[in-house]
Specification:
Order of helices and strands of chain A: HHHHHHHHHHHHHHHH
Number of domains of chain A: 1
Radius of gyration of chain B: 19 Å
CATH architecture of chain B: 2-Layer Sandwich
Order of helices and strands of chain B: HHEHHEEHEEHEEHHEHEE
Number of domains of chain B: 1
Number of strands of chain B: 10
Helix content of chain A: over 70%
CATH topology of chain B: Alpha-Beta Plaits
Largest interface: A-B, 43 and 41 residues
Largest sheet of chain B: 4 strands, mixed
Distance between the termini of chain B: 60 Å
Strand order of the largest sheet of chain B: 8-1-10-9
Shape of chain B: globular
Shape of chain A: globular
Helix content of chain B: 25-40%
CATH superfamily of chain A: Formate dehydrogenase/DMSO reductase domain
CATH class of chain A: Mainly Alpha
Oligomer: heterodimer
CATH class of chain B: Alpha Beta
Structural class of chain A: mainly alpha
Largest sheet of chain A: none
Number of helices of chain B: 9
Radius of gyration of chain A: 23 Å
Number of helices of chain A: 16
Number of strands of chain A: 0
CATH topology of chain A: Formate dehydrogenase/DMSO reductase fold
């Protein structure tokens, strides 16, 4: 479990809490950079677009959906692994989960928020977005519950709420640890955050079953969220999107890209927060094996999707298939196949699986591939539906590209704020994995 | 309230249109259509369609509720051109209606697929779901140069940015005809009393509009024509527009 010898209980507290309690100039510089990148690349173009209209983006008459939606799916997908993986591993009692789950769940939370930003950016009249919530009003107006977008609103808000509660509940004993280690305002704040946690046997017992209950509750939610996102596409009759395989395809792709995202985040935590002691080879090895499995499932579903398009044999489907495989965006398609189906196979080699640097490269490549996958879904199908006269073409404008980049800065900003407010590694659960101390040692 | 709910329920019953209100239908005789595009101009004037300009047109962002689709058949020396007017088909099982999260588009008691501009939040899902690609999005707020704003139709709203729009079968004319019928103590609108702008301007009378619930209406007779077909019928959207195919010698 521990690569560099087992730490003592006090050392665990010290290592994890020092990240929160000691802030150097490097942190402020990094935070300033990510915040300004988010402001310049994301919010400024968006404000411009709000004034001008969505026409500032590259979408047009036949291609009314663009990169905003593909980014939305990407970020929802990235959110998938954190809470889902944490919950599954909690129920199956895997000890290697304990050091990484807190950050993984934070990733879920923040990528969901980033995804929600993209819905806002996508909408034509975002100032009326509250109409998509069932808020009772004088006019008796109600949202349309037959709409897959409505399912989306429901699924994402539920998932966001459930994962927030899940991560908070798991952090309560750690908030108490922060409270005990700090003074002044921070102490008073964390007294509130920790709900006056004292660590009695009864409190531990309650936390235990409540946490397991929530873990079971969250798993079907996580699966449903991305299935529902896929229905935004699959419930249309657009050739190339109207496939029953879409829900498992999206869920699998989501967990795939999310797991790759966890590897990337773990690398950064290890590198910049000095968590080498806690995040070790066993985590990398397990995540690597998971990545291979998911990659194989993903490849299988991809083949199945191509096959069912071809086997369906309608001229519309065949045309869509041909455009995807050989049209303008074909290089992107084959890039995606290379990065998501072939590159992960390298993880089969132990030499690569055990090297943090190589795994970092692979995990980033996987997510590049997954980002293009989502772009291809949006850009190759819906501009070319049934009537050839109305075939269109979509290419993102510089505003869309800038917002795409800015979203990563938003995510990084949120994550940087997170590591200063919440212990990035679960202190009490890492302690559970320590071997009992020998008295004579 | 309960009567209101009952009324809503009745609207949802299949076959409701046959028993109660109108079912507005159009037939388009492709044998008569010359592709002159007068319908497009008439629609543009009647429904306050914005003039998007050359640049926006090149970006494929024009708004034309009715368009003439052009198809070429065969290779160069032996080439033939076919064209077909394409407008909102007012499908009875419209894919766009289930898509809208806020009910900005819905089916009304006249069998019309209506679009409520005020309610639209611009998710553009309806346009993706529409197989006929007849929904047009306002990518910008368009303005009319002097003195063009003088010719705006006061019966039709001007749409702002971020709103989806499409053919309404000139719902403002339907409303006026219904009001007139009510004022004259008639229960029904007479056949030929409602004429949408495109139908009115068609020089060859290729377009016929009317209430297909009335078996005596001209449009009902035209629909029985053996040349009749519906575009993309295999998608089961049950469109309200019947095309009469061109007869080739």
């Amino acid at each position: 479990m521990f690569d560099h010898g087992q730490p003592s209980y006090a050392e665990v507290n010290k290592d994890v809490l020092s990240v929160m309690l000691e802030t150097g100039p490097k942190y402020w510089m990094l935070l300033g950079t990510t915040m300004s990148v988010a402001g310049i690349c994301f919010f400024m173009p968006w404000i411009y677009q709000l004034f001008v209209g969505v026409g500032a983006a590259g979408m047009n008459r036949n291609a009314v959906w663009g990169s905003y939606l593909s980014n939305f799916i990407f970020w929802i997908g990235l959110s998938h692994s954190g809470t889902l993986l944490s919950a599954v591993l909690h129920i199956t009692n895997s000890p290697w989960r304990k050091a990484i789950y807190r950050s993984a769940e934070a990733m879920t939370l923040f990528s969901l928020m980033t995804a929600a930003m993209f819905v806002m950016v996508h909408l034509g009249r975002v100032w009326f977005v509250h109409w998509s919530f069932p808020i009772p009003n004088q006019m008796g107006l109600w949202p349309n519950f037959r709409s897959p977008l409505m399912f989306d609103v429901m699924a994402i808000t539920t998932y966001l709420t459930a994962s927030s509660i899940f991560i908070y509940m798991g952090s309560v004993p750690d908030f108490a640890a922060v409270r005990d280690a700090s003074t002044g305002l921070r102490r008073r704040l964390y007294t509130i955050f920790s709900f006056g946690w004292r660590g009695t046997a009864r409190e531990w017992h309650t936390l235990g079953w409540a946490y397991t209950f929530f873990a079971i509750f969250v798993i079907p939610l996580a699966v449903s969220v991305h299935s529902i996102v896929s229905w935004d596409f699959a419930l249309s009759i657009v050739p190339g999107l109207h496939h029953t395989i879409f829900a498992p395809y999206f869920v699998c792709g989501a967990i795939f890209s999310g797991t790759a995202g966890i590897v990337t985040v773990m690398y950064c935590l290890r590198k910049f927060l000095n968590f080498e002691r806690y995040i070790g080879q066993v985590h990398l090895d397990s995540l690597g094996k998971l990545l291979i499995t998911l990659s194989l499932i993903w490849s299988y579903i991809n083949i199945l999707e191509l096959f069912s398009s071809w086997y369906g044999g309608t001229s519309f489907e065949l045309e869509a298939l041909q455009f995807k495989l050989t049209g303008f965006y074909a290089p992107l398609y084959w890039e995606m196949i290379l990065f998501c189906a072939f590159v992960p196979l390298l993880i089969l080699f132990k030499k690569i699986r055990w090297s943090w640097n190589k795994m970092l490269v692979i995990s980033i490549l996987i997510n590049v591939g997954m980002l293009t996958e989502r772009f291809i879904i949006v850009a190759t199908s819906q501009p070319r539906k049934f009537l050839p006269d109305a075939f269109g073409f979509y290419f993102p404008s510089w505003i869309e590209l800038s917002i795409t980049v800015g979203a990563f800065a938003i995510f990084a900003t949120l994550f940087l704020i997170f590591i200063k407010w919440v212990p990035a590694i679960s202190i009490y659960e890492v302690k559970e994995t320590l071997k009992p101390l020998r008295r004579d040692a | 309230m309960s009567t209101f709910v009952e009324k809503l329920r009745q609207y949802r019953k299949p076959g409701y249109y046959d028993k109660f209100d109108y079912h507005w239908t159009m037939t388009i005789d492709l044998d008569r259509c010359t592709g002159c595009e007068a319908c497009m101009v008439a629609c543009q004037a009647e429904n306050n369609l914005p003039i998007v300009g050359e640049k926006r047109f090149a970006e494929n962002r024009e708004i034309k509720w009715i368009r003439i689709e052009r198809y070429w058949e065969g290779e160069y020396p032996d080439v033939k051109m076919r064209f077909i007017p394409m407008l909102c088909q007012h499908c009875d099982d419209a894919p766009c209606e289930t898509a809208c999260p806020v009910f900005a588009t819905y089916h009304n008691q006249d069998g019309l697929n209506t679009q409520i501009y005020n309610r639209c939040i611009g998710t553009r899902t309806c346009a993706v779901y529409c197989p006929y690609e007849v929904r047009y999005f306002n990518w910008f707020t368009y303005t009319w140069d002097e003195p063009l704003e003088q010719q705006l139709n006061p019966d039709v709203t001007v749409r702002e940015k971020g709103v989806m729009e499409k053919c309404t079968f000139c719902i403002q004319r339907i409303r006026i005809a219904k009001d007139n019928a009510k004022d004259d103590d008639r229960r029904r609108v007479r056949d030929g009393e409602v004429v949408p702008a495109c139908v009115q301007s068609c020089p060859t009378e290729a377009l016929v509009f009317g209430n297909s619930n009335d078996p005596e209406a001209k449009v009902s007779k035209m629909m029985k024509n053996p040349r009749g077909y519906k575009v993309l019928e295999e998608l089961n959207t049950t469109p309200s527009i019947v095309y009469l195919t061109k007869v080739h010698s």
